[in-house]
Amino acid sequence: MDLQTEFGSERVFNTPLTEQGIVGFAIGAAAQGMKPVAEIQFADYIFPAFDQIVNEAAKFRYREGGTGVNVGGMVVRMPCGAVGHGALYHTQSPEALFAHVPGVQVVMPRSPSQAKGLLLSAIFQSNNPVIFMEPKILYRAAVEHVPNEFYTIPLNKAEVVKPGSDVTVVSYGQPMYLCSEAIRAIEKDMGASVELIDLRTIYPWDRQTVLDSVKKTGRAIVVHESMINYGVGAEVAATIQDGAFLRLEAPVKRVAGWSTHTGLTFEKLILPDVARIYDAIKQTLEY
Amino acid sequence: MSLNFLARLPRPARSQRTLLPSVKRWGSSISQRPGSDRVRFPGAVNSKFTTEMSFINPAETSSIPTYRVMNSDGVMLEKDRKSLNVSNEEILTWYKNMLTVSVMDVIMFEAQRQGRLSFYMVSAGEEGISVGSAAALTPDDVVFAQYRETGVFQQRGFTLKDFMSQLFANRNDNGRGRNMPVHYGSNYPRTHTISSPLATQIPQASGAAYALKLQALQNPDTPPRIVACYFGEGAASEGDFHAGLNIAATRSCPVVFICRNNGYAISTPTLEQYRGDGIASRGVGYGIDTIRVDGNDIFAVYEAMREARRIALTDGGRPVLIEAMSYRVSHHSTSDDSFAYRARVEVEDWKRRDNPIIRLRKWLENEGLWNEDMEQETRDQLRKAVLKEFGDAEREKKPPIRAAFEDVYDELTEEAQEQMKELKRILETYPEEYDLRQYEDGIKGL
């Protein structure tokens, strides 16, 4: 598929190599009613554009107020996450940094059909700036049927991927596969029933679906690739203890990257894997 | 229980920016002819070879000249030049618009000093740049400004009531009481709401201009439109300046960048801001049509802007850079005492030497269009009008409390609704701790 040949070089084009320029340019186009879909080559290189996202895109509608001008048409796509050998600057998942910013929606799909439905929602249905993070390890690994026609998957809505009754596992993006594998093993080994939830939208997130699940199971684990400190897991765990305190039968566990950088040769030891998720479920069930 | 599926993955999907080899051959990659006197490197296609090793020394090149039309006595420099093509009525409007900004500045600066306003920034010495350039725009053109362009808003129809509503963050404020004073904004003529982070508006202006260009392609009946983008010489040191001008050039965007070079970025003089020939010399480096003008000469600013607008609309779109020279006569803001870093005599000298308002006044008087009586009467009227709107705006209610939560997203999130409920509970539980009378509808406004 060659989008530039199909739609023309006015609509699909290279920019100079400047992330702050790319995002600023997209904000300007969106402010005049266009629907720019900007790409940052790797999520690791979004930081030069952090000011444009946090101070500008996120606050645009709020500060314009009564003029009604906004940049809701824009989407910023970026490949994220580990690939096995990406080291410090081809591995990061900065979703938690953006989840601290009111005004943007932060989305991460787990599969091709989900990527299409969520991206179409981000472009055509969301009237807010969207940070769309694509786990790049899945670009060529994940294969599944994807409908050819236009369809959307709602933003800000979590999905119960697998129902269960003993413990809730909350995750998103690539670790969803690790969770599935760990759940298969633990259900076989311990005869437990595990509920798996994909957040899909990291902010604003679907708190109700997670709370309903934990009120049912009484136990929860949050899994993500990015660092544990101040990560998405912290917000989810705090929300669970606040909203489901009397139903909790074990502490909410967080399985996430250790609070270090992703040194090339240490990746397997730093990021959550099936063993760590398996162990966390086991400990939570046995608490 | 293994990471088998990771092992099946290919090498990194996209480790570098590449075009498919079959796509196209760029003009810049034409093969070198044998014996050619020019380089055919793709990065510089028209560069001659030389055997002389010579570094280009910026100090040895002369400064870009400053375009002016009339001298500081308000006298046209070229007697037989073709006329401005502007009516005397319109020029009188420009003059009154500059006066309005100037009168409002003095009153509001004083109001801030009395604590009736939280903050203010005057435009003293730069009224000619903002009014003169805005006069060359159409209402359909889009403006991104920095914060010292009150004259642009005035020239584009912002009323005293609009200014005062914003300054007092009352319920009539376009910004719904959310922004610091002087962060004005209007939907039409579209002059985007000012944001404090410097230079962020520059790449945004390029993107907005690209949008106007695409919209013109999609609908050829739309009137020709450009984007005008204002910033100071200090903001031009930000990375966003580089990003914005470079991307405007490579994507051929119909945008005019107007740099107000007033000599200071708060306390930093230009000597510590840059060592090149101002900002104008950089435009050439980006491949952008560039001019330096006398910012105290409203006719020069207007003419340069009118021509820049024409250039910006040629060939489907082209960026232009105008560097308008002036002097920041006032303090940077009400939070600044500029005599801590510059001599009072320097400022007094500039006040005496040259000023865009006095210069135009002299021209008007030479033409018999203005006199001392008209000046006094107009100043009195403006002062009264400003004070009336000042009083009205100060008494007006603030927006309802829910405006604190609205417009973060297009709809209130579930989380925001919960937090509003919680704030309401707090306000009801501790009513003596909060004075809600100033907000429209009090607690019901939440």
TrEMBL record, chain A:
The Swiss-Prot or TrEMBL record lists the needed cofactor(s) as: thiamine diphosphate
* Keyword hit for Oxidoreductase: yes
A single GO molecular-function term is: branched-chain 2-oxo acid dehydrogenase activity
The opening ranks of the lineage are:
Eukaryota, Fungi, Dikarya, Ascomycota, Pezizomycotina
Q: What reactions does this protein catalyze?
A: N(6)-[(R)-lipoyl]-L-lysyl-[protein] + 3-methyl-2-oxobutanoate + H(+) = N(6)-[(R)-S(8)-2-methylpropanoyldihydrolipoyl]-L-lysyl-[protein] + CO2
Biological process annotations from GO: branched-chain amino acid catabolic process; generation of precursor metabolites and energy; response to nutrient
Question: Which residue range or ranges hold the Transketolase-like pyrimidine-binding domain?
Answer: 1-141
Q: What is this protein called?
A: 3-methyl-2-oxobutanoate dehydrogenase (2-methylpropanoyl-transferring)
Q: What class of enzyme is it?
A: oxidoreductase
What's the short name of a Pfam family annotated to this entry?
Answer: Transketolase_C
Alphabetically ordered keywords of this record: Oxidoreductase
EC number(s) from the headed UniProt entry: 1.2.4.4
From TrEMBL, chain B:
One GO MF annotation is: metal ion binding
Query: What's any GO biological process attached to this entry?
Result: branched-chain amino acid catabolic process
Q: Which domain of life is it from?
A: Eukaryota
Give the Dehydrogenase E1 component domain ranges. Answer: 95-401
Under Gene3D superfamilies, the record lists:
3.40.50.970
Q: Which Pfam families match?
A: E1_dh (PF00676)
Which residues lie in coiled coils?
402-433
Provide the catalytic activity annotation.
N(6)-[(R)-lipoyl]-L-lysyl-[protein] + 3-methyl-2-oxobutanoate + H(+) = N(6)-[(R)-S(8)-2-methylpropanoyldihydrolipoyl]-L-lysyl-[protein] + CO2
Keyword Metal-binding listed? The answer is yes
Task: Give the subcellular location.
Answer: Mitochondrion matrix
Say if the entry is tagged with keyword rRNA-binding. no
Name the enzyme's class: oxidoreductase
Q: What is its main location?
A: mitochondrion
Q: Which cofactor does it need?
A: thiamine diphosphate
Keywords noted in UniProt: Coiled coil, Metal-binding, Mitochondrion, Oxidoreductase, Potassium, Thiamine pyrophosphate, Transit peptide
**SUPFAM superfamilies this protein is in?**
Thiamin diphosphate-binding fold (THDP-binding)
Gene Ontology cellular component annotations, sorted alphabetically? mitochondrial matrix
What does it do?
Answer: The branched-chain alpha-keto dehydrogenase complex catalyzes the overall conversion of alpha-keto acids to acyl-CoA and CO(2). It contains multiple copies of three enzymatic components: branched-chain alpha-keto acid decarboxylase (E1), lipoamide acyltransferase (E2) and lipoamide dehydrogenase (E3).
Family assignment from sequence similarity: Belongs to the BCKDHA family.
What is this protein called in UniProt?
Answer: 2-oxoisovalerate dehydrogenase subunit alpha
Q: Which organism is it from?
A: Neosartorya fischeri (strain ATCC 1020 / DSM 3700 / CBS 544.65 / FGSC A1164 / JCM 1740 / NRRL 181 / WB 181) (Aspergillus fischerianus)
Taxonomic lineage of this organism?
Eukaryota, Fungi, Dikarya, Ascomycota, Pezizomycotina
